[in-house]
Amino acid sequence: MVHFQDTETSIRFKNLDKNEQLKIIDIGEYIYFNGLKLYSDTSIEKEIYANELRLQDVKTQSENQLQNHTKAVQNQYEYIIQSKDDVIDNKNNENIELKQRIKDLEEQTCQAFALSRKLDSLMGKGNTVDNAMKGDFGESIVANQIQYWYQASEIEDKSAETARGDLLWKLNDCDFAALVEVKNVQMVRPSEVQKFERDLLVNTNDKSCTCGIFISLKTETIPNKGKFKLEFINNVPVIYVSNILNDLNTLRFALDALVCIHSKYKLLYNSSQSDTNTLFQESMVEFIQKLFNKLSCMSSNLLQMKNSVDTLISCIAHEENSIKELTTNINVLRTEYDELKNIEIEYKANNRSELKEQILKDMRLFREEKGRIPQMSEMLTKYKQSVFRDELAYKKLKIEI
Question: 394 exposed, middle or buried (CB, 10 Å; 0-12, 13-18, 19+)?
Answer without folding.
Answer: middle
